[in-house]
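Example 3.2
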Amino acid sequence: MDNLVRSYAGVASNLRSAASRLRASPGEIPSWQGAASVAYMGLCLIAGEDADDAAERMERAAAAAAKYKDELTEARQDAKQAIEEARDAQDRIDKAKKLIAAAKGRLADARQRIASALDTIASSSGAVPSGAEAELAAARRAADEAEEDIRQGQRALERAEEDLERAQQRGRRARERAKDSAGLLRAALLAASPGAIGLAVGAPATAPGASAAGLAGASPEQVATFFRRIGPEGGARLVRTNPELVGPLDGAPLGLRYVANRSLAEREVQRVEGELDAVNAELEEGGSLLRFVDPRNNNPVVDFVTTTRREELLEERASLEKELDTARPFTDPNRQLLLYDPRGDGQVAEVFGDLERAGHATVLVPGIGNEMANFDGEQRTEALDFQKEADARSGGGRPPWRGWAMTLRPDPSWASAISTRSRTRWLTRAASRSRARSTGSMPRTLTPIPRSPATATARS
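Structure, written as tokens:
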């Protein structure tokens, strides 16, 4: 990987030199005059700019690749350490279970000895048989020792399970970081690949999958060109294989973005359903502790730990059910999602009406307090009302006023960085680009409506 990063930097340097030579070449032919000389000079200057642009892309890719490479290495090391910690915790869990099982066996034997000694004492008609009381006392001591071993085993088991959970969480976070870094590394390298550079300077496009990842660093105009060249079949295939790339991609055809984002919503539903099934399965088993604790034995420590685990599972199930209720509506094939990102509080943008034919457009800009969980509430209802009003005004023919609304939860950091008016302008430009790059035209008017208090409506 280090060699690859160095090679990208070397190619960038060579491209810079080529650009400089191209721009200097017209001056080396002073005898040329007239239109031919001017045309040749223009071609050299354009080619030099293209080479400079390619060099800049290679330099950015090399810098990003170096950064993400280090992050990927660190994430993989963390994941490896988390695996070792998880294995150690699992070993301690197994030992604690064996200790508990052995202690329970000794406790059962001691109780049998106690019962036998008591029977012997009770059945004696006169003096207590020799050694019966001593046997009873020894059996009771053995029972006490076994119960203490069980308590120690339970405490050791609880600590080991907590360590295992922490190790698993650390491993999951490390794997997510590694996945993100690997994806960013791949995108950074492919963004400056020959396919991506060829797309930028007008060379024939390759197969959809060959340079699609490089679209992450391409402009909306280049994205639109890419999809025109691969055609409808290539675009559909790309949606099936990489919906996470197409869904938020500015410049991609609107229809493909709708399908891709619905696919992402379906993927989210499947993920949450899988986690919910796992939680329900553990609840049906009575929680992890009940699998090796005899419920016939009264033990306050066991009861407390088991109850705590069950409460955690119930809370996790309630949270997952809420996530599932939030995600399912977005799988409706009749909805037109321009953006779908369930991470954190979530980001979503929905189109109402025919954006490709809209003469007028309205953008509803939510306030900071909104999140994906309350998307299908008042603001979506208001957007639908805009759409119904648009249909009513159209008179049944091709509507001169075709409304659509987009709702997007801004990142909370915007609250301190820029004003609501600035967020409104940003969303307005995003909406305009989505329409213009997909259809080649702009709505005649575009009216954003901020939903934060004390904010004036911006118009463009």
